[in-house]
Design brief:
The complex is a heterodimer of chains A (88) and B (158).
Chain A: E1 7-12, E2 15-20, E3 32-34, H1 36-44, H2 51-61, H3 66-82
Antiparallel strand pairs in A: 1-2, 2-3
Chain B: H1 3-15, E1 18-20, E2 37-41, E3 52-56, E4 62-71, E5 74-78, E6 89-90, E7 94-103, E8 106-109, H2 113-124, H3 126-143
Antiparallel strand pairs in B: 1-2, 2-7, 3-4, 3-7, 4-5, 5-6, 7-8
The chains are: A alpha+beta (88), B alpha+beta (158).
């Protein structure tokens, strides 16, 4: 899976916020506020990644069990899918 | 205020900020159309001359232009690359004030001294730029060419 391109992320205070740029602004308005794990997954998904690769990225960066990481990955991916932000 | 304006105000109230990529050419060269970002914060007091405000026009369009002058109960606004007169902006139409912007990926605070010097130069050079613009427009009319790439009202999407 991979997220749609055409976004930039900016640090705002302690948060990472992604907004559309270029032609993407025609199809998506608003901003995406990302916490630490979500920001990591967002960056990872700029390229094609499997669920396993995302779990590995989370467990490598955070002191978290694979089971908890998998739950985080699935929840985040569902949010992206619901917002139509994943490539088909 | 339109539902879109109320939505932006709600985001500002809830998150304390609103980050967006403005569309349009009215704030060039500072902001490039659909490429640069602005961070908007709620306006907590009167805006200063040179501040950039996000606001809603009486027609319901959203604009991100600069305060040229304070007026009783409002502001005289103008885009950095605009030459037309705007109706006075009343304070109730202000959504927020630009605190930071990213141009070409580089972050700049609206309080940065170098940026404030840029703003002063931009405001002071307006009469000269307007004259040059008028001369160019006259030349284009005389030669039958038209180079105006801006919307009539200079408003884009924010």
């Amino acid at each position: 899976m991979k997220r749609k391109d055409g976004f930039v992320s900016r640090q705002v205070g302690g948060k990472v916020v992604a907004v559309p740029v270029g032609e993407r602004t025609e199809h998506f308005s608003g901003m995406i506020t990302l916490n630490g794990t979500a920001a990591l997954l967002w960056d990872e998904l700029a390229e094609e990644r499997t669920e396993t690769e995302l779990v590995e990225a989370l467990t490598a960066a955070y002191d978290v069990t694979p089971e908890a990481a998998l739950a985080d990955v699935r929840a985040f991916v569902k949010k992206l899918a619901d917002a139509h932000l994943l490539e088909p | 205020m339109t539902p879109e304006g109320e939505k932006k105000r709600a985001i500002l109230a809830e998150q304390g900020f609103y980050l967006t990529t403005p569309a349009g050419h009215s704030m060039e060269p500072m902001l490039t159309d659909r490429e640069d970002q602005v961070l908007i914060r709620p306006l907590t007091g009167p805006a200063r001359r040179g501040d950039v405000l996000l606001y809603e026009t009486p027609a319901g369009l959203h604009a991100l232009h600069r305060v040229v002058r304070r007026r009783p109960g409002g502001y005289l606004m103008r885009g950095d690359s605009c030459y037309d007169r705007e109706p006075c902006l009343t304070e109730d139409r202000v959504i927020g004030r630009m605190e930071t912007f990213w141009h070409g990926g580089r972050e700049t605070s609206a309080d940065d001294p170098a940026y404030r010097r840029y703003v002063r130069r931009r405001l002071l050079s307006y009469p000269l730029r307007r004259t040059l613009h008028a001369l160019r427009a006259l030349g284009a009319r005389l030669t039958g060419h038209r180079r105006d790439r801006h919307d009539k009202d200079g408003h884009g999407r924010t």
